[in-house]
């Protein structure tokens, strides 16, 4: 069962990266952990935000209940990644959903500085 959980979290992360809402819905309906993470502690929300997949970001937060404050291995949030990649719409949405603009990563950077 643990191997299946890891495989399903991997599928969730890939679906988020591609912005595949149908796959995200199927996986979450199958009780895959929306906050499951990869080896760098990146969640589906991190990957969707980094790719600028706004529909996936919306789905993960609104329908999936993803943790907008989750930090990866470097303490970077989805907001850090969206800001660093210049995904303005994702940044706005994340902030509207409670992302902390003053969150500090391990290099003492904030999303505002990364923008």
TrEMBL record:
UniProt-recorded Gene Ontology molecular function terms? ubiquitin-protein transferase activity
- Pfam families of this UniProt entry? Ank_2 (PF12796)
Which UniProt keyword terms apply here?
A: ANK repeat, Repeat
In residue terms, where are the ANK repeats?
40-73, 74-106
User: Its domain of life?
Assistant: Eukaryota
Q: Which InterPro entries match?
A: Ankyrin_rpt, Ankyrin_rpt-contain_sf
GO BP annotations of the record are: protein K6-linked ubiquitination
What is the protein named? Answer: Uncharacterized protein
Q: Which organism is it from?
A: Aureococcus anophagefferens (Harmful bloom alga)
């Amino acid at each position: 069962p643990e191997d299946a959980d890891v495989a399903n979290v991997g599928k969730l992360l890939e679906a988020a990266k591609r912005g595949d809402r149908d796959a995200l819905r199927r996986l979450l309906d199958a009780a895959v952990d929306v906050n499951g993470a990869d080896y760098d502690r990146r969640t589906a929300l991190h990957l969707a935000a980094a790719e600028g997949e706004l529909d996936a970001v919306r789905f993960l937060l609104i329908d999936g209940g993803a943790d907008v404050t989750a930090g990866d291995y470097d303490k970077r949030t989805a907001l850090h990644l969206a800001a660093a990649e210049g995904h303005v719409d994702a940044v706005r949405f994340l902030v509207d959903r409670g992302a902390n603009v003053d969150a500090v990563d391990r290099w003492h950077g904030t999303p505002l500085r990364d923008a």
